[in-house]
Request: fold
Amino acid sequence: MAENQDENGFITEATTSFFDRPQVEVEQLPIGPGVPLGIEQVFNPEVGIGGAYGTWGNAFDNEAIQQVVEQHLGEPLPVERRMNLDELGFVSRHHIPQLSEQEDIELECQVGAKILRQAAAACGWETSEVQAVLIGSSGPPMPDYTEQIARLAGIPEEALKVSIHKACDGAVAGLNLALNPTLPANQALEVNLAEELAGKKILVGGIEGLSRFMKYSHDKNALQLFGNGAAVIGLIPNRAMSLLASKTFENYDVEGVLQVKMVYPYHDENVMAHSLIEVSTVNSHHYRVAGKMYTPNNDEPVIMAGLMGMVKLFVRTGVDVVKDVYQAYQARVTELGTPGKDFAMAVVHHANLKINRLKEKHLQKEGINISMPWVLSEFGNTSAASAMIAFLRQLPGMKPGDHILIDGFGAGTYYDTLAVQLGE
Reply:
């Protein structure tokens, strides 16, 4: 438990900005009035995994973000609509100034390329050595974003690029694609990614410019919760990390509790039977895995129900998915001759603290005691980036042979949960 949390996991004092961490390198990107970018590298030589994570834009604490929302809306934020962000696990998040569409694209391309370069460098790799890039993004600034940032980072054109659009689940879904050859999406693609990438140097993560995506929003909940974030890890599948059990699951949000505008290509042409996931080949080196969203009937990027709606949407099904993976995991470790071995830790999506605590509580009722650490207080909800930020923050404590639970979920509604082993 972090030092700034009480016994219930609630924030007890403000933390400093992410930029104030001693390991963070901060630079000013010369776009618009100037945009600060901070990146922290992490590497664990024992397990052979490293990466980079960070955020961009000015930092706003919980009081300031409500003032930013009022300025954006052009009206006061009613007291009853002010979220208790401390209890939701957040103390600050980062937002960019008003930029033109072209400046937004330039900014996020620079950010993405820098994150890829830093993630490769953290692993001791040249970007020319990277053989695949898998990026989750809820609202990419353009359809070929993954290709563009890989090119800017100096990653070879022939390296595989995979764009995953499953909202907050995007990065964990990308990791699942890289590790599990039996996934329906891998069976539907021209190339089975897990078979193709085994033993190769890959970068996988999430990059989310949510303050750009939210500039057209009038949703008072979303404006208070979301912030910018990016995280990419470098690993060699089946060497640094191997799969023990996993599950991908859809539970479509028929009520539109969390509506998200799809700004990525999705045509309903390549949807698999009994699935809303569209897999497609962009070109010989770029594949796309995209999930259908309940889309707002106006130009809003996001429309959210209240917090209880989010709990209803994510907790019940999320607990079932984790339970199924846990049972498959127990069977697997018994098969491996290590019955009773359990997870060293869990890495989870940080939607908000209450959702994660409720999942933890309901799992305990099922006899499954899994702690879901909360480690992203100064970011806000960063969608697909959050689970990978959490992974990198917990990476220094991981050991070879550890079994890790990685739990992703997001709007749509899509779930990917993995049990993995570190080391060969």
